[in-house]
Amino acid sequence: MIKEFFSRITLLHWPTFAMVFFILFFTGVLLWVWVLHGKKDYEEVERLPLEEDENLREVKGK
What we know:
This protein is mainly alpha-helical. The protein has one domain. The protein has two helices and no strands. It has helices at 2-47, 54-61. The mean pLDDT is 73.
């Protein structure tokens, strides 16, 4: 009985399961890329020496 129940759900709703899976999968991939991209930008900004910033040079000169 349980096996029939699950096979009925799977046969009737497999497009829904596929749609939910792809939505979750692509959302996960987008978040992963977003987090990695943001982390990379943050590390590049963090590594930038303060002396190379032109605005800070102008402030120090005054």
